[in-house]
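re: that chain from earlier
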Amino acid sequence: MPERPSIYEQEHEDFRATARAFMEKEVVPYHDQWEKDGIVSREVWRKAGEMGLLCFDVDEEYGGAGIKDFRYNAIIAEEITRVGAGGLGFTLHSDVVVPYFTSLCNDEQKQRWLPGLVSGELISAIAMTEPGAGSDLQGIRTTAVDKGDHYVLNGSKTFISNGIISDLVIVVARTDPDAGHQGISLLVVERGMPGFERGRNLDKVGLKAQDTAELFFDNVEVPKANLLGEEGSGFISLMLNLPQERLSIAAIAVAAIEHALDLSLAYVKEREAFGKPIGKFQHIRFQIAEMATEAHIARVFVNDCILKLNRGEVDASLASMAKWWTTELQKKVVDQAVQLFGGYGYMTEYPIAKAYADTRIQTIYGGTTEIQKEIIGRSLGL
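^ sequence. v structure.
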């Protein structure tokens, strides 16, 4: 396989070896069943916590490793993608949701929640999208009315990853209907709170083992102690955290591109037509050459973004560039790989067919390609 540009040092590769061994032992043998079930086991979360594969940036006093280096996050994304384990919500948990807890929790909340989030005993989700509001977060209608020592939460959310399995859900709600984006707050809703109901586990095109659900809130009493950050600061918190989410998706995209290239390269070397391997035909050789070039460019770009993120230099525009470009490229490369495999590429027992189904969501969640381009365009003064 082609040698790839690397930003990893020996300690990162040691961590990769641990993550890879975990995937082979604790994930690969069970993932087909999880796809049938539409959800992974809670046990795999606890085992991941034991192995130190969750929330490594959480401070040691709460059970984390205290390592604030996104290269470790990227390795988890790469190893999950390499084995096609789309059901594992580890990257959502560690890269997207838990940073809200680490940056916004007060000391009491940190002690209450962080140890369980690190150990895998508490699984997290974030509920932004509503039936009538997706990428436009200012259009949300879920309300939280101040009742003194608690809020009364009403509304619904949809397409929530980890929606069935989660224990803690950060809900984006409107606490002031007249304050625009300054009226949005973040509330932590816990499993078992009266009035908090989960709808069906949604039947998706791909990522079958990743539970994705509708959530309903009917007069849920959420204690003030479950407010994350200041009331009315939710929109700002979302804007600060979304770049890392988008870079996490880009890291998955690059890993998927490289995986599709590896599968294709191996296949065209062994598959014969007209008496020779199909990789010997100029058209296919050129196509593989293009895929390899694009994979290299994407890897260099995302590697640079990861190092910039570690230095605190990734702004919303750069994250949007990485997110839309890598995911659109992922769609293109995986589609080309299916074509190279021919009829076998359409058979679900082949990893490339599964990759094809799992790929399609990448340009949609985390903010659509169109929204990313809008963000970039505005940053250019347009």
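The CA atoms of residues 74 and 382 lie 32 Å apart.
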